[in-house]
Design goal:
It is built from seven helices and 18 strands. By secondary structure, the protein is of the alpha+beta class. β13 and β14 form a beta hairpin.
Length: about 400
């Protein structure tokens, strides 16, 4: 007769208990799922927009700056205003001198950043950590604002601080000592510029040119839809000798092709709202300057002007836009959650704490499986009860 070990009995008992626990868990889960009477979803803020998509072209008062020089250091900041007679570019007699000037600027920026950290009054590790965060935020802002002149210096600062964090270049004081030596050496080798290029008048500087700088705002009124489309389809390139451009004044213009029946809804002088996508995602207030005559295709040219965000749209030329006709903001809720009481009032139930709360709403838009509603009580993030039996205001729910 086989002898049964005590260990085997214990293992069988433990296994049985474990199996029963699993069965009990799934039984409770299934029972809860079948008997749970309430299902909730989060209310979501939602915007319904009625708009017209248009394609058009931007024109500004701008002047291309030309130079025959090759060893040219751009002194003006991208998207920054330069005063009349102010220095736009510095010319050096050789590429070697140009590289020294660019390096001197980068070293000076690194020194300033590290000196600010050293004098901040906190521990060295915290200085470096805070400095990295600060410089990365500034770099991200420069990229978003397309401030090309700032990106190089900020990238160099981030690199220097990252090296400090891992200890590759020692302490802040040691780095500063090295940078001071490099700065002194570069300054001792620095020679006088061969020439300087100055701004003929006050304006915003941009290093980006596209060959359309000769398209003036006063030329746009003469363009019918066919002419405007033809102009937008042209392939132009930046002049070979261009170092950048200056943009004058505060206003820029956008000529767009629109269906004539849509343009009839506007009058010259009307204020409208437009969005220009990747270049400027914020809403811009535009003024209708001119509405052209309809052509045989039922289209016309409409000219808009704007005195906002000039520095942000310096690179914009041929660009699609969205003309906002109407915009409604509300809360999106499932249709299944929407109910009507005996008085004809529309409402939803939300789970507030452990109770159902009745909240009146007004249906604004039908989105198929959802409504967009307006309500003084319903907020984005509220738990809306989608289904459940015998629900009433104040009922305890879970």
């Amino acid at each position: 007769m086989r002898h049964i070990k005590k260990t085997d009995v214990i293992m069988k008992i433990v296994g049985g208990i474990f199996f029963l626990a699993i069965v009990a868990y799934f039984a409770i889960y299934v029972f809860s799922s079948l008997t749970e009477p309430y299902q909730t979803v989060s209310a979501v803020e939602y915007t319904v927009r009625d708009s017209i998509g248009v394609e058009g072209m931007v024109a500004r008062e701008e002047e291309t700056l030309l130079t025959y020089y090759k060893s040219l250091y751009i002194a003006a900041g991208e998207g920054k205003r330069v005063s009349g007679g102010g220095v736009v570019g510095v010319v050096y007699s050789s590429d070697e001198e140009l590289q020294r000037a660019e390096r001197l600027k980068a070293v000076t920026s690194e020194i300033q950043s590290l000196e600010e950290l050293r004098n901040s009054g906190v521990s060295e590790s915290q200085k470096v950590d805070n400095g990295i965060k600060s410089e990365i935020l500034a770099l991200r802002a420069a990229v978003q604002e397309r401030e090309l002149a700032e990106i190089g210096a900020l990238s160099s600062n981030v690199r220097t601080l990252m090296l400090s964090a891992v200890g590759d270049e020692g302490s802040i004081d040691e780095q500063l000592s090295s940078l001071y030596e490099e700065r002194n050496r570069l300054q001792s080798l620095k020679s006088e510029p061969y020439d300087v290029i100055k701004a003929p008048a006050s304006g915003l500087f941009s290093s980006v040119t596209d060959g359309f700088e000769d398209v003036r705002p006063d030329m746009l009124d003469e363009l019918d839809p066919a002419s405007l489309k033809s102009l937008m389809a042209e392939e132009r390139t930046a002049p070979e000798l261009a170092l950048g451009k200056l943009v004058y004044g505060n206003d820029w213009y956008y000529a767009a092709v629109m269906p004539a029946d849509k343009a009839d809804d506007f009058d010259e002088g009307d204020e409208v709202t437009m969005i220009f996508g990747k270049y400027y995602s914020e809403y811009l207030d535009m003024t209708v300057e001119n509405i052209g005559y309809a052509d045989n295709n039922g289209e016309c040219t409409v000219i808009f002007s704007c005195d906002e965000a000039m520095a942000d749209v310096l690179e914009m030329r041929v660009q699609s836009a969205e003309l906002i006709l109407r915009e409604d903001k509300g809360i999106r809720v499932p249709k299944k959650a929407v109910r009507v009481d005996e008085e004809g009032r529309v409402y939803v139930f939300t789970q507030t704490g452990m109770q159902a709360e009745k909240k009146l709403v007004t249906i604004m838009h039908d989105l198929g499986d959802h409504y967009v509603v307006a309500s003084d009580k319903l907020r984005s993030g509220d738990l809306v009860i989608v289904s459940g039996k015998d629900i009433y205001d104040g009922k305890v729910v879970r």
